[in-house]
Write a structure and sequence with these properties.
The chain is α+β, with helices and mostly antiparallel strands.
Length: about 260
């Protein structure tokens, strides 16, 4: 079947190529990631005012949770996390890689905990958090609403498991619980979610002199774990994010 001339073409990393069927210049995965990050970076403005007036680029600021969106993910985990827990890890690391791309380099630490939970911590700017007209902190709703760049897009970049990126809400919706901590220059916060739905308010926490985001989650018990690999394999699989140095610590029983 011939490919439509309007259909976007994306290749693995290695530079642009010309599709022989259409003559269309293809974007490589690296270029797509760069474009997506620039979109995100321009949106991080620290605006003050009503969240309904803020420009939506990566997520919808006007809503804190989209229950229909979360239910859609939970109803079909095989579609949104085809490699199970492994895919959830990559969805989180992809955000750390965006931060590293802006700075030219970055660090990320993945910890596989003994209770089957996983944490991913980076040294980026910390999730965009703004102040509304009443002086209350409003954090970008990355956990409970769709990523407007990726969730429904045929241009979504591929993750290291060769499945498309859909956004952090996939991780939240398919986790029994998730704690999202972000540390920025002006303040730090944490919030807890269960199956993607916030179960606490956004809570201010003490600063520790660092910036970055930590996502600690426990995947749902019924999520496929057969593709969860060793720490060594995770290091190899995340090496495609060239600007990001990834450390992996395995605190489970058995070899790392």
């Amino acid at each position: 079947m011939s490919r439509s001339r309007r259909e976007p073409v994306i290749t693995r990393d290695g530079g642009p190529v010309v599709d022989p069927l259409t003559g269309t210049v293809a974007l490589c995965q690296r270029q797509v990631r760069a474009l997506c990050f620039e979109w995100s970076r321009l949106a991080d403005t620290g605006s003050v005012g009503s969240s309904r007036e803020w420009t939506n680029t990566t997520h919808d600021w006007s809503r804190s949770v989209d229950v229909v969106h979360l239910a859609t993910i939970r109803a079909d985990p095989a579609a949104f996390a085809p490699t199970g827990v492994l895919h959830l890890i990559f969805e989180v690391v992809a955000y750390a890689a965006e931060e590293a791309m802006d700075n030219g380099n970055g660090r990320c630490t993945i910890v596989l905990h003994a209770d089957d939970s996983i944490s991913v911590a980076d040294n980026g700017r910390g999730t965009d958090t703004r102040w509304d007209a009443a002086g209350s902190a409003v954090r970008k709703p990355v956990m409970s609403t769709k990523d407007l760049r990726f969730f429904d897009s045929p241009l979504a970049p591929m993750l290291p498991d060769d499945w498309p990126r859909r956004g952090m809400s996939v991780v939240a919706a398919l986790s029994e619980w998730l704690a999202h901590t972000n540390r920025r220059l002006d303040a730090s916060w944490v919030q807890r979610y269960e199956r993607g739905v916030p179960v606490t308010d956004l809570q201010r926490i003490s600063d520790d002199g660092t910036n970055g985001t930590t996502v600690h989650f426990r995947p749902a018990a019924d999520l496929d774990r057969t593709e969860l690999v060793t720490a060594s394999d995770l290091r190899d699989l995340t090496s495609s994010w060239r600007e990001l140095h990834v450390d992996v610590t395995d605190r489970r029983s058995g070899p790392a």
